[in-house]
Amino acid sequence: SLFLLFRFFQLLELRGRWSMLWFLPVSSLFLSWRQAEGLLWGSHLLNTMVLFFSLLALDCCLRAHRSPAFLGAAMLSAWVASFSMASGLLVWPAGWLCLAFAGGTEIRKARLRGLVCWSLCGAVCGTCFTLDQIPFTGDWPSGAGYLLTHLPDAAEYVLLYLGSSFTHDPGAAVYAGATLLSIMVLVVYLTVRNVRRHGGAAPGLPLIALVMMALGLLLSKRLGMGAEQALSSRYVTFGSLAPIGVYFCLLGLARKMFIARILLSGMMLLSLVGAVDSYPYGLQTGRENLVFETQCAAFIRDFRQRDPQELVCAYPAPEQLLERVAYLQRHRWSMFR
């Protein structure tokens, strides 16, 4: 995924012998230890899977004007992303934006064909997903109705989500999210205006669009769990694309606008704050996780003498877990080796 982000970065065509160094804040933010759950829990591999194939699809969309093979690869990647997680479906509208603006105005016919093919393929994919979908259920209130009646909580959720890439502290995350959102609104406007007037690539825009659409989906499903749920470290893996997209947009504008250079300095400062905060947080979370996992493994190895409710530490349905643990013990796998 980091390599794909580097390919996005290359589309900016920055000049200078040391221009590659501008990518360092991206790698620092994207590989931040704030995403501790994604690094420690194998069950969160789905998050990285949908992220990789979404980025791959968008990268191919941005280059689809060069060869029809890129469009085919983008469609295949988008299908894999769509059936990895529900948020993977959002790659279709984000990819539409890439196809609509990439390649310049001189290839309108080729762009139109690509948009039609992409739209039809996305419609088929969405239909297949809907037919195979299991309705979402939870023990908390959700849906558009709940969202519309709790707009202050929704606003806090948005700020916490956007600021979670930089810090795990709720108070600091609100300020970081508000700062990022303010910069984002201005940067998107300036970037769209620049692309319409002068053309060129804007690889940051689809990243921002992808994250904001995913945030809308989260709001409708998770707001009822409380605003601070937006700080979950597993969301940082995907949510970090928003500040990275803003950073890419600012890099593209910095040569032309003084205000972009000022905002770029602000984004680099936010990235530095995030790096300083993330590593102590990751170390602390890792230590706590080690203690928790060690205790839970001891319970599971002694599962025949334990109350089934003590096994909830490993899986929320102890009855199902007992069947699987017995199978592992019989074959001497995992912790029974």
Topology record:
Layout: H1 2-10, H2 24-30, H3 36-40, H4 45-62, H5 68-82, H6 91-101, H7 108-131, H8 144-148, H9 151-163, H10 170-198, H11 204-222, H12 236-239, H13 241-253, H14 258-301, H15 318-331
Please tell me about this protein's structure:
With 337 residues, the chain is mostly helical. The protein contains 15 helices and no strands. The chain has helices at residues 2-10, 24-30, 36-40, 45-62, 68-82, 91-101, 108-131, 144-148, 151-163, 170-198, 204-222, 236-239, 241-253, 258-301, 318-331. The longest helix is centred in the last third of the chain and has 44 residues, at 258-301.
Radius of gyration: 22 Å
Strand content: under 5%
Largest sheet: none
Low-confidence residue ranges: none
The coarse silhouette is globular
Structural class determined from secondary elements? mainly alpha
Number of strands: 0
Q: Which series of helices and strands comes N to C?
A: HHHHHHHHHHHHHHH
Specify the helix fraction band: 55-70%
The average pLDDT score comes to: 84
Output the number of helix runs: 15
Spatial separation of the terminal alpha carbons:
34 Å
List keywords for this structure.
single chain, 337 residues, mainly alpha, 68% helix, 0% strand, globular
Could you give a short description of this structure?
The longest helix has 44 residues, at 258-301. It contains 15 helices and no strands.
